[in-house]
Amino acid sequence: MADDDTFIREVNEEIRKEQAKAIWDRYGPILIGLALLVVLATSAYVGYRYWDESRANTSGDAYSQALRLANEGKEDDALAALADIEKSGYGAYPVLARMRSATVKADKGDVAAAVSELDAVAADGSIPQSLRDMARLRAALLLVDTGSYADVSSRVEALAADGNALRHSAREALGLSAWKEGKAADALKLFEQIVADQAAPQNVRQRATLMSELIRGSGGAS
After folding, report:
1. Cα–Cα distance between 211 and 173 in angstroms, integer?
2. Half-sphere exposure of residue 113, counting CA atoms within 13 Å on the CB side?
């Protein structure tokens, strides 16, 4: 009986070997090919990640250097550095460079050029909507002092709607512009919206509260 069991095990083992060999003969090349594809795909992914991070880091370093130049008052050097990033930067940095370049131009006193640059960013459909909206808001804030209420409104009226993440700053820009043009009632309504909005940043609500009190105290909104 023991010999029979041994014989059966040996036969089963041989059968398994034959089956394994048959499977390998049939599918072995395919399995090897799949393994190679996995290795190549992994290598390509790792290589791409390294390349992507390297380019992003390079652009980030260049952007930080440009900001440092701007903060040091070296505006012309900063504009030159930002222009290079606009041309050869990676990821979101070219757009950020355009927007920062506008800020530097405004600091130099060329508000018209700054607004023009920001308007160009806002009109560029290839740029993410969040950055386009931020460009509209920046342009409007610059125009509070140098433009009309219509100029400001045309850029941020839509951003002032309930639920918009930029509504607080948009309403503040509209309120300041309305106040400057003597539209005290409109300005007061906008500032009161900010004060009543619990989601508004504390500093923005404080400024809105001060403006509301100023307008009421002046009697211009009656």
Report:
1. 12
2. 13
Tokens 């701007």 correspond to 70
Q: Could you tell me if 91 and 59 are in contact, meaning their C-beta atoms sit under 8 angstroms apart?
A: yes
For residue range 2-17, list pLDDT tens digits in order. 455 564 565 556 556 6
Beta carbons within 8 Å of 53's beta carbon, 6+ residues apart: none
Q: Say which residues have a Cβ less than 8 Å from residue 25's Cβ, sequence separation at least 6.
A: none
DSSP labels, 8-63: HHHHHHHHHHHHHHHHHHHHHHHHHHHHHHHHHHHHHHHHHHHHHHHHHHHHHHHH
**Cα pseudo-dihedral 160, 101, 120, 122, rounded to 10:** -30
- Angle 59-137-161 from CA coordinates, rounded to 5°: 130
Of 78, 84, 125, 126, nearest to 102 (Cα)? 78
Q: What are phi and psi of 49, to 5 degrees?
A: -60, -40
* Residues sharing a CB contact under 8 Å with residue 211, sequence separation 6 or more, in sequence order: 175, 176, 179, 187, 191
For residue 133, the number of C-alpha atoms closer than 13 Å in the C-beta half-sphere is: 14
Helix (H, G, I), strand (E, B) or coil at 196: helix
- Supply the pTM of this predicted model: 0.72
Residues 92-103: tens digit of each pLDDT: 888 889 999 999
Cα–Cα distances in angstroms (integers) from residue 4 to residues 11, 14, 60, in the given order: 10, 15, 76
